[in-house]
Amino acid sequence: xxxxxxxxxxxxxxxxxxxxxxxxxxxxxxxxxxxxxxxxxxxxxxxxxxxxxxxxxxxxxxxxxxxxxxxxxxxxxxxxxxxxxxxxxxxxxxxxxxxxxxxxxxxxxxxxxxxxxxxxxxxxxxxxxxxxxxxxxxxxxxxxxxxxxxxxxxxxxxxxxxxxxxxxxxxxxxxxxxxxxxxxxxxxxxxxxxxxxxxxxxxxxxxxxxxxxxxxxxxxxxxxxxxxxxxxxxxxxxxxxxxxxxxxxxxxxxxxxxxxxxxxxxxxxxxxxxxxxxxxxxxxxxxxxxxxxxxxxxxxxxxxxxxxxxxxxxxxxxxxxxxxxxxxxxxxxxxxxxxxxxxxxxxxxxxxxxxxxx
Amino acid sequence: xxxxxxxxxxxxxxxxxxxxxxxxxxxxxxxxxxxxxxxxxxxxxxxxxxxxxxxxxxxxxxxxxxxxxxxxxxxxxxxxxxxxxxxxxxxxxxxxxxxxxxxxxxxxxxxxxxxxxxxxxxxxxxxxxxxxxxxxxxxxxxxxxxxxxxxxxxxxxxxxxxxxxxxxxxxxxxxxxxxxxxxxxxxxxxxxxxxxxxxxxxxxxxxxxxxxxxxxxxxxxxxxxxxxxxxxxxxxxxxxxxxxxxxxxxxxxxxxxxxxxxxxxxxxxxxxxxxxxxxxxxxxxxxxxxxxxxxxxxxxxxxxxxxxxxxxxxxxxxxxxxxxxxxxxxxxxxxxxxxxxxxxxxxxxxx
Lengths: 358, 351
Hints:
The complex is a heterodimer. By secondary structure, chain A is an all-alpha fold.
């Protein structure tokens, strides 16, 4: 039995080659076009935000170097949360949630900037951050898959304990990174773009390929869509779920290096509330919180929208309180829009097409 | 089939071995030995006058669980100062993450009947009732930095001057702008956590003083006293103000991030003033190779002083340089400005 057949049985809408006739093919097309429409709307929102910026600050936007720098600064602001969100998107599509991402970022960041780790140089620091991230993620995964803990509880416990461990390791101090290479990731630019942004791009592309072009991705959608059906179709749901949390941990490890580079230091309090930023970005990007649906492109657009709002409020000198209220409003609006508008519109279009073609 | 099984077990073995090896390597990597935190204490070596050993005092201490340098220094200082006195017994309780947790921890402290309690509350208003309770039970309370609204809730309070910090930062900036001959400077501000009253006081002192000189804050962003939030807010502020003359950052700990953002943006046309007076900031000012030219103090050395005051209260003594026979009720530290010129004198006070 091949795997694509397995996932095809579990979630007809998501398989590349669904067994069955034109009806199923159409539903597949409908779903993919729905996510395209959704992503186009997000792009529209992004453009609208930039236009608002240009209208409110015409003086700043008249300088093309400034505009370029501003784009770069938005991308850089989005880069760390973006990488975390890629991992989070996988976990949510797979039917879980990871509340511990911010804490893992802090723990991996603190662990890779201790004086002992720094003495091993760049490779030692990167190795440490990645291994700590993956290990903590896998611990989450084992607790959830084999310990049968609810993801919310397991990762909530990890949120608390990982921050505790980070505080214990750092002695509650800010640990300065004196590694020139790590620090240069945020300051050095290639073709005018900071290296951090390239890292985000690589992670996002890798995430897209993994989700859309590999059996791992197909299984993720299948497990999140209907775990029991996926199990009956021959997918090792427990093992797969565990790996998803490991993947989220990997993203956190990468993000920890990036954040350490950005702040040229690490401390136990860093990455505060990243879990909420990442979940919010995934949600407004169209990822279904109950699992089984979501796109990497949508999640990245979600992160970019939040970063652009932050930037918009900053360049207009508006307060953080107002900014947070607007962010909350946007999350609610995005979910409302997804629930009502798209489904009906795309269904309407699909139905129309069905009637005209038949 | 069998082959895949053995492959799998070999792979598992390899993975397992790698995991154990990585684990062993990583646990070796948590060491931070080379950086002992030096505390800021009053030397009690001469042991004359008030420093001479006297009646035994049990000091109960509570401060919020530290997640950044300043609070960590508060706890370190209190502990170190208590150890410096042979007649002080130091009982510290973990205050947990919020006011409720601190209240619970403090009630166990009252049960241990300390002579005096030194307390840095999560929030002065929320722990006011505890102060009243302890005072009613006959245990004098020394409030550290976050004032109780009720004067009956404490015997003595010692705190930093948040408003004065803003004033000192603004004064330095005003002087520098006059020296440079800038008449309408663009001034930025990176505040700490905006929901805290102390942040509001700092900002008010800053804007009031600037206003008196005819200047104003062009843009203000609130970070969260953490390095990464400092970097993010500073990066956005720098975008908002393509040309800036001066910048005040409330907290030197988040200032590491602010300086990183400035460096990443390649900006150097302005002067920056820090806040609190961390060792890192003082060294940077001394080196004079960044935009950071000064910092205004909000020193955690107040924790050491609070322990000394608590000891005097417990021994029923006054401050020897003053005429009064008892410790005063209110002490507000002055916010001092550290520049390259006097940095060497302050270097030992950095935390």
